[in-house]
Amino acid sequence: MKTSKYIIIAALILLNFSCKKFLEEHPTSFISPDANLSSAKVARGFANGCYTDLQGFLNGQSGSYGGNTYNLMEFMTGKANSDLGQTGFVNFQNLSYNATSFYVDTWWQHLYLGVGACNLALQSIPPISSVADTAKTNMLAEAHTLRALYYFYLVRMYGAVPKVTTVPTTLDLNLHRTPAKAIYDSIIIPDLLAAEQSTLAWSNTTGGVSMSAVKSILADVYLTYAGAAINGGQEFYAESAKRSLAVIQNGGFSLFPNYTDMINPANKNTGEFIFQVQYAASVPSTNPLTSLTIPNYAGISKYSDEYGSVYPTPQFIASFPAGDKRVAEKQFFYTSYNKIDGTGIKTFSGPYIYKWFDVNAVTNTAKSDLNFTLYRLADVYLMYAEASNRAEGSPNAAAIGYVNAIRARATLAPIGALSQEAFEQEVWLERYFELCYENKMWFDMIRTRKVHNDVTGAWDNFVGHTTVFGGTFAEKQLLFPVPKQESDVNPNVLPNNTGF
């Protein structure tokens, strides 16, 4: 089973076990199976190894020029276009992708590599006697949190998946798939509840798992679990609201005054940012989104490759309300920029994504220093608003206030009293606009089973919605197929998901 091979490889490769800024340095060592694994540094190394494959949420070319794992979640929404045929975009545009298509296998590999590293940490840290119990508990909390996060992506993307919770001792693992609800009930939720009992710091400016990150992920998990994919029950909306409100009320985070504060590398892991995937311009694996989202061959940057891999559809841009600052020039999008050779301004054919525009990288270094955000305060505001509205049967004053805080930054008028349904749709719409192109929208679509129609303004049912490219979502779009490279070596993962 290829997955097992990757897990064992991940188990043997620990990064940077002598450095505090564990995600900003080169790997410093490899641990052999017969090494003496008894020092505090090694324990820290096991914990640090759990973070490595978070970069797989962006990086990971699947044999395509300008194709990274990030692309998949945006291509699927029907609200993104691409300048590059090599990315395989057309297969997602017309919904003809299959078990051998780009990205489907790369996501699977990276997520299971992450699971493997977490399992190794959870197995190897407890016996290390040189680490104080409190420190050990917190390192285990990091591993539990990240294993839950990797599995959270797996079940949302693939549904039932193989359940791996220990370090394999053989490559002959032909595991059957475990239903998604059982993965939530036996791994994702218990892991996060265990981490919630630790003494992790409330925030972490070096990018490690913090208590605010644990609660943010748990709020997201409960909101998803309560929704259409699992239909876990009404009480889980209340659990989601409880965790998101704790993140808001415990302090330490605030909305950035300006949208461009989010593309200032000096603000990494601070301000609005609760949990980010770490990148640094000083190491080779820099954030790829800056070059990925520059218009193709625009000649505006120091990058040798300007991909134009992902950019918004005109219909999505037009769906923003009049006066919304987020669609003003050089806020979330931009339509022109100075040519790098100094010969004038390059005007693009339409808006491109400015959310990942690292000015220093574009104009000087060609090495982006931006992190990739998994959770920020605006996201948590909106999770609380949605979950509390569902739990209580109508929006409370705090929920309305948090939505209005997001609208105020966008220079939009505040909303007033709304019905439960109208408020929920307002929250969904704010998630579309505020979190666009942050790999959130696709998960919202499959969680709510609703899609905002950018042309009519209506909320369409997911199954039956036709994108602006003419593709119509069917039940098969609710889950990605198990990659063929996995089913080839482990037939027990078959039958595949509906339609594949």
What does this structure look like?
Residues 1-30 have low confidence and may be disordered. The protein has 17 helices and ten strands. By secondary structure, it is mostly helical. The chain is globular. The protein starts with a helix and ends in an 11-residue tail after the last helix. Helices cover 41% and strands 8% of the residues.
Quick recap:
This protein is mainly alpha-helical and 500 residues long. The protein is 41% helix and 8% strand.
Sheet bearing the most strands, described?
2 strands, antiparallel
Beta strands, count: 10
- Distance from N terminus to C terminus (CA atoms, Å) equals 20 Å
Oligomer: single chain
Q: Averaged pLDDT, please?
A: 91
Estimate what percentage of residues fall within beta strands.
5-15%
Principal-axis shape equals globular
Order of SSEs: HHHEHHHEEHHHEHEHEEHEHHHHEEH
Q: What radius of gyration results from the CA coordinates?
A: 22 Å
Helix share, percent: 40-55%
Strand order of the largest sheet: 1-5
| Uncertain residue segments | 1-30
**Number of helices, counting only DSSP H or I runs of 4 residues or more:** 17
**Structure classification:** mainly alpha
Please describe the topology of this protein.
Elements: H1 2-12, H2 40-49, H3 69-75, E1 80-81, H4 89-93, H5 104-124, H6 133-158, E2 161-162, E3 177-178, H7 180-196, H8 211-226, H9 235-249, E4 273-277, H10 289-293, E5 311-312, H11 314-318, E6 333-338, E7 345-353, H12 359-365, E8 372-376, H13 377-392, H14 397-409, H15 420-434, H16 441-448, E9 450-452, E10 459-461, H17 484-489
Antiparallel strand pairs: 1-5, 2-3, 4-8, 6-7, 9-10
Helix pairs in contact: 1-5, 2-5, 5-6, 6-7, 7-8, 8-9, 8-13, 9-13, 13-14, 13-15, 14-15
